Amino acid sequence: RGSFRMAGCAPPLGRGERSRLTAACSGSGKVTLAATSGRRSREGAPAKVWPTGARPTSVGRQSTTSVEVRRDSRSRLRDAKVIGATGREPTSLLEISEAMDPQKKKKSCLLFHSPDTADLAKKVADLSTKIELGEIAWKNFADGFPNLFINNAQSLKNSHVAFLASFHDPALIFEQLSIIYALPRMFVGSFTLVLPFFPTGTAERIEAEGEVATAFTLARILSNIPLSRGGPTSLVIFDIHALQERFYFGDTVLPLFESGIPLLKAELERHASQGEDIVIAYPDEGAWKRFHMFFPSYPEVICTKVRDGDKRIVRLKEGSPGGKHVVIVDDLVQSGGTLIECQKLLATHGAKHVSAYVTHGVFPKESWRRFAAQVDTGGGAKEGFRYFWLTDSCPQTAKAIEGTKPFCLLSLAEPIAAALEI
């Protein structure tokens, strides 16, 4: 019907290739072309619309017309898959790749964990859509040595992998180290070790020949974690006992020292908004040096320890706790004797309430029960502690004190999730 015109003719197609061109005239002066190869039928292939004056060209053995038809068809199919999955046009090559092959779509971080940190790991994963939990089979042979298996190890290639560890029990360290040393060797893109509590941190120096600084020993062990494809291991630790311990680690790990103090500050701001007059107290000069920069807007009370024969007595060095809600801040607690002595001292100096915060509640031999027996239920500081805030860095303690006054658990899940963001 009607007529059409083309400027020039298409050059010969490649040798051995047959083509069929059909043309239909339209009022706009455009010509519809379709090409097929002699090797395979192209019946029903989407047609390419060429403006008047355009002409297909041949490159080598294949017609540009047929290439463009196939490319256009694949592009529409590709975009349709992305739109079907997301409801919008694709915005990146990565998004296109993930839509075309769902198996390529991976979380930003695959988080493995020890059996004791399962609860904390789940909280971390629940806080971020970019973190997925990995699975490890933790078993033992008849002789008691670990029998370990990392599930879906083949899929770890090029993935960002992390392990959430807990070294609260020396008997559990070897089996976790076995996993920690194995994961980077699985051709992972990067490896991060999250060790919320560095347990030998208090043994960071020696005072007499023959003593062993086990903080240095553990740092050397962790410094020998194999390199991953992405380079050195990232090591996340919360409130290590002494900041100079960063120099115990070798160049094959990258220590990142985080703090649980922001969690406490959020609690203190809430209490301050209710009209409470908060004062921060430190049980010794070491705690003041470690944490005072976190509380620039709060009044301070500093205690000190003095020797009286074989005993250590806590005394008030500076500050006025009278009529205030005093919060004692330290990095960890063992038996709790120093905190209890500080609480009694502050009560005798007129503190209205006394509370405490530690990042790591170690509490060997269930020494936390000492605090559960002395609770300020409204009678004031002389009764005991109003609140005792601590994090879940020590999983055995977190489970033991759950629902017990005066303890209030602050989870490290949010800062861990933030540290794992790639």
Q: Unreliable stretches, pLDDT < 50, 5 or more residues?
A: 1-9, 17-42, 102-106
The residue-averaged pLDDT reads 83
Side-by-side strand order of the widest sheet:
15-14-13-16-17-18-19
Q: Please give the largest β-sheet.
A: 7 strands, mixed
Radius of gyration (CA) equals 33 Å
Order of helices and strands: EEEEHHEHEEEEHEHEEHEHEEEHEHEHEH
Helix percentage range: 25-40%
Structure write-up:
- The chain is an alpha/beta fold.
- 26% of the residues lie in helices and 23% in strands.
- It contains eleven helices and 19 strands.
- Strands 15-14-13-16-17-18-19 form a seven-stranded mixed beta sheet. A six-stranded parallel beta sheet has the order 6-5-9-10-11-12, with helices on one face.
- The two termini are 62 Å apart.
Question: What's a quick, concise take on this entry?
Answer:
This protein has eleven helices and 19 strands.
Question: Which SSEs are present, and which pair or pack?
Answer:
Layout: E1 31-33, E2 48-50, E3 58-59, E4 62-63, H1 64-86, H2 93-100, E5 109-113, H3 118-126, E6 131-133, E7 136-140, E8 146-150, E9 160-164, H4 173-182, E10 190-194, H5 214-223, E11 233-238, E12 253-258, H6 261-273, E13 278-282, H7 285-291, E14 300-308, E15 311-318, E16 325-333, H8 337-348, E17 353-361, H9 369-372, E18 388-391, H10 395-400, E19 407-410, H11 413-419
Parallel strand pairs: 5-6, 5-9, 9-10, 10-11, 11-12, 13-14, 13-16, 16-17, 17-18, 18-19
Antiparallel strand pairs: 1-2, 3-4, 7-8, 14-15
